[in-house]
Amino acid sequence: MGNEIRLGNLIYCATFRLVFSIRGLIALLFSIYMVTMIAYIYDRLPDTFFELIRLFTEDSGLEFQWFLFDNGLSKAVTIFVAPLFIFDAVSGDRSDDRFGLMLARPITRTQYMLMKLMSAFFAFGIVFLPIMALGYPVFVDIVETLTPASYFGTILLLYLLAFFTLCVGLLISTLTKNTLVSFLALFGLMAIIMLPNASKYSSEALEKAAMATPHYYATYFTSHAMDALTYIGFVIVIILFSLPFLFLAIWKFKKESL
Amino acid sequence: MKIQLWVEDVKTILLSKRASYSIIIMAVFAIGLAIVVEFSPEGLKRALEAAAPGSSGVFEYMWFEDFLDKLFLLVIVSFGTFAICDLEDNRMVGLSLSRAQTRLEVILRRLTASMFSFLLVFTVGSIIVAIIARAIVGEMDIALFLLHQFIVLPMCLFVISLTFFLSVPLKTTTPTVITSFAISLVLSFTYTFLLMGGDSAPSVLNPLALGHRILMELPLAGAVGAALLSAGVMLGVGTVWFLKKDL
To answer: What is the interface size between A and B, counted as CB pairs within 8 Å?
Structure first.
């Protein structure tokens, strides 16, 4: 019990260190920028753009959700905002020689890794979710068809997509010794994983390739009507995509000679 | 400036993971985008070609719009961190300045070494990308593609200069990289969003829109001049700031 409390405290402290840091500030400003810019630009999009979007969304009134989430935020979250909180989680401690100090505490290596992951997950949520919640009243004014269920439902899927990014980031951070290399490798890998989903409307082959990435399931409801059973299924699918990376990261870290 | 030290710096960068990762990222994205182009329907290809009259083909359109002025920015930023951040991270600032060199010599040496290394890596990467794209996509004017890659260099110089400028107060790699990357991304997204919203052309003052201007055959002189001028100002101010700074 005592150990659990200490781990909880460590997660709490690490979360707030991340939130109140330059990366927390940049993630906050970047999220505000994306939401503001999309709200500003949506009213000014030419009709031809809407016609194009309707080809993807089957004219189902989901044009805004597609524009906000699939076209904008899913990319920004996976290649920039979420990686900010994890890319140097292990490699940063390693290069600063903080390992000894961290592991001198009564926590196991598995707990250390879970602390890193959970603090990044909570810090991302603290920065990202309130901005999105505050954006809702603004967006509703612009888009009459927007419903709370489809908006917040997709945001939760994006939050899970960020969890996937964090798990991949934790693995990469464990494998690398340098923070710059961690960032480059994580960014490059996430951009590659994102590519099939970003191009899925070009052809059926690319759509099939996109189905092998969690991005497809996180953005599915930006072009299809939402139903509860499929939603729950996709939540499970995204988590299942994430777990192997988390297990690999913990396994690698436990085997490491410090 | 001692030439041996400069050569040593260039060697250090070229043998570092940032150089190899840069080329790997360029090559992997060339393969990825070329596959996307290959699988795209003919109608879409023709529409993209018509939308970018100055490009050497659909591949170049996607390369510039999706990769070079967004995803590739982090690669450019990583070269800008060499001048100061690498020294700070390795706690080598004092040691480097204790040699019989002035601060100005040290910073000029490291800055020019990072720019020269970037140029080499970018050139090699661009040639590999052109070969990959030609092999997969087929229809592509390699010479025109490479020419465009070199015209876009002032944008890269701007990003390196911005990173250097930010590294003076921020010192270490992590805050410098995320701040510089965020600013560059915002500049890039801004012109993209404004074009979506109906602007006919990006502002000449936005260096990140240089690639778009090339593809659209818009006048380049003003944009190149603005990019070089802003890069020069940041390099100058950054250098003076570093010289006056209490280390």
So the answer is: 99
**Please, what's the b/e burial string for A11-42 (b: 16 or more CB within 10 A of its CB; e: otherwise)?**
beebbeebbebebbebbbebbebbbebbbebb
Tens of pLDDT, residues A144-193: 888 888 889 989 999 999 999 999 999 999 999 888 889 989 988 998 89
Cα A51 to Cα A48, A67, A226, B242, distances in angstroms = 5, 12, 22, 53
Maximum alpha-carbon separation in chain A: 61
Find the helix or strand (DSSP H, E) in which B50 lies: helix B42-51
- Report, in angstroms and rounded to the nearest whole number, the Rg of chain A calculated over CA atoms: 19
What are B89-110's pLDDT values in tens digits? 777 666 666 666 788 888 999 9
Q: Does residue A188 contact residue A117 with C-beta atoms inside 8 Å?
A: no
Domain that holds residue A104: 2-255
C-alpha to C-alpha distance for A9 and A141, rounded to whole angstroms:
41
A215-219: Cβ within 8 A, 24+ apart? A215/A74, A215/A78, A215/A161, A217/A157, A218/A74, A218/A154, A218/A157, A218/A158, A218/A160, A218/A161, A219/A69, A219/A70, A219/A74, A219/A154, A219/A157
The ipTM of this complex is 0.87
Residues of A with CB under 8 A from a CB of B: 22-23, 26, 29-30, 33-34, 37-38, 40-41, 44-46, 49, 79-80, 84, 88, 92, 95, 178-181, 183-185, 187-188, 191-192, 195, 198-199, 202-203, 205-206
Number of domains in chain A: 1
Domain ranges of chain B: 3-244
What is the reported pTM? 0.90
